[in-house]
Amino acid sequence: MAGEIKTTTSFLSDPFLCHCLKMMCFLFLHTFPGNFLPVGASEGGIVGGRVAEPHSRPYMASLQFQGHHICGGILVRDDYILTAAHCKNRPLMAVLGAHDVSKPEKTQQRLKVEKYRKHEEFTGGCENDIMLMKLETKAKLNKYVKPIHLPELNGDIRAHVKCDVAGWGQTAVDKPTSNVLKEATEETQFKAECNNIWKEHFNSTQMICTKFSKKTGGICQGDSGGPLICNNKLLGLTAFTQENSCDNPKFPHVFMKIGSFLPWIQDVLKKH
């Protein structure tokens, strides 16, 4: 059985290690002891996969520190970005309208974050790993920058549904981060399959897990806070993988189930 969980933040972030057994979070520099890693930590990104068509996902945000990609994010309103709670370990800048984050593209909007609203029940463990960030100024909406619709209901997620994931993280554990947005296709799994692998670390009421192949690729460190898109609908938020084995198909990838958090999300958006 896997022992700790790896989240997926990216290069130059304080790598985040989510110890689900102890329900504690630790910040390390470049090393991740344990077995599970939140997908926001320093080694990751879409492994394999394909380069996304430029600006085909106008809701995507690159969350950066000092010009370096840390996590993914999802624009859900002109002034709010949804991401993983574990991504907030230092001040972040939101970059919208980007394809190649290494270039100052004319389509890009760089916006400061005014407030970070982590879920009140996020304690640094694996559950409730979700956060809304309020931007200092509203994004200028156009064909390059556009919010995605939230799911309408918290329904069951069927197994064997093909879903897309996307991000700018590393393309392999020993590879540099990707300058351009990449994407891959994964497939939802039955809850029982996820429970068999992740045991008590998998909470089926608020998590979704997916299987993938080395051929088609999938998420890895650097992709935390990015989307799981199924049938053109936003259903999940990238959360964690197996440490040092994000490309091992034996270990399903795990996402926060956005539908489970709809009341919380709507309450935050309504109040602000």
From TrEMBL:
Residues 46-270 form the Peptidase S1 domain. Coiled coil: none annotated. Keywords: Disulfide bond, Hydrolase, Protease, Serine protease, Zymogen. GO terms for biological process: proteolysis. It catalyses: Preferential cleavage: Arg-|-Xaa, Lys-|-Xaa. It is an enzyme of class 3 (hydrolase). It comes from Oryzias latipes. The keyword Protease applies. The keyword Plastid does not apply. Its main location: secreted. Its EC number is 3.4.21.4. PROSITE patterns: TRYPSIN_DOM (PS50240), TRYPSIN_HIS (PS00134), TRYPSIN_SER (PS00135). GO terms for molecular function: serine-type endopeptidase activity. InterPro entries: Peptidase_S1_PA, Peptidase_S1_PA_chymotrypsin, Peptidase_S1A, Trypsin_dom, TRYPSIN_HIS, TRYPSIN_SER. This is trypsin. One of its GO terms (cellular component) is extracellular region. It is found in: Secreted, Extracellular space. Gene3D superfamilies: Trypsin-like serine proteases. PANTHER family: GRANZYME 3, TANDEM DUPLICATE 1-RELATED (PTHR24271:SF80), KALLIKREIN-RELATED (PTHR24271).
